[in-house]
Design a protein that fits this description.
single chain, mainly alpha, 2 helices
Length: about 70
């Protein structure tokens, strides 16, 4: 018996993309640089909070479109 459901290639690519974005955001150098009075780290995390659900939703919606 398998413990996990199979993951579509598109969803796997989405997961890798989001992990890479998160790893990029947590680079220590971004904590010292500032844009508009806020650290680049904060901007990257805010962007990740917007990008993550959007990219995931698009991947899931495209999966449903393929199955019809």
């Amino acid at each position: 018996m398998k413990s996990f459901f199979p993951m579509a290639r598109r969803e796997g690519a989405t997961l890798v993309f989001l992990i890479a974005c998160a790893a990029f955001a947590f680079i220590p150098a971004w904590r010292d640089l500032e844009i508009g009075g806020m650290a680049v780290f904060g901007w990257l995390i805010a962007a990740l909070m917007l990008i993550s659900p959007t990219v995931t939703l698009v991947a899931f919606l495209r999966r449903r479109g393929d199955s019809r």
